[in-house]
Design brief:
Number of domains: 1
CATH architecture: Alpha-Beta Complex
Number of helices: 6
Largest sheet: 6 strands, antiparallel
Radius of gyration: 16 Å
Number of strands: 8
CATH class: Alpha Beta
Oligomer: single chain
Length: about 180
């Protein structure tokens, strides 16, 4: 193979890996692996205030809350198959009648930017990994600094706080598809 051919082959392989970054970025344990001492994830999030939300946002948040406890499954996008992080977003939005991209990177690059202080339940929150600067993990904001996400292999869909030191450190931004 010519040197230029090797370069392009490696570039194609790297881009292919990046396309799936939200699923495989941190290896077998999933995209985000908070240290146990800093993992403040809780299985019972406070009930979100849905009273001021549009019907579409209510469906997304309610579906996300109902998904808590569903096992993580790489590539999963239904309650029956389990969810990965972007699969949960795909499912909740599709339930509300909105077709969104299937990867965290695509959701981040194509969604409408939302500032952290302007988050509304149903918006998406994104995180970079310890060694990545681009968004590789996504969750659904539910209000009061909480979000729901599928954290990784061997875990279940759960609620976490944005002000958890781990998630605060790797917060990459927020987007909306509404």
């Amino acid at each position: 193979m010519k040197p230029n051919s090797r370069y392009y082959l490696l570039l194609i392989l790297a881009l292919t890996c990046l396309a799936c970054a939200d699923h495989k970025a941190a290896g077998p344990s999933g995209p985000l692996q908070p240290h146990p001492a800093t993992d403040l994830t809780e299985s019972k999030i406070p009930p979100p205030d849905l009273s001021f939300l549009s019907d579409t946002r209510k469906i997304i948040v309610t579906t996300a809350v109902e998904s808590i406890g569903t096992p993580y499954h790489w590539g999963g996008h239904t309650p029956d198959s389990g969810f990965d992080c972007s699969g949960l977003v795909f499912y909740t939005h599709l339930t509300a009648g909105i077709q969104v991209p299937r990867t965290a990177a695509s959701l981040f690059s194509q969604g409408r930017k939302v500032l952290k202080h302007q988050l509304v339940p149903g918006d998406l929150v994104f995180f970079a990994g310890p060694k990545k600067k681009s968004a590789i993990h996504v969750g659904i904001y539910t209000g009061a600094s909480w979000f729901i996400h599928a954290p990784g292999q061997g875990r279940q869909v759960t609620g976490s706080r944005l002000n958890n030191p781990y998630f605060k450190k790797y917060y990459a931004g927020a987007r909306s598809w509404l």
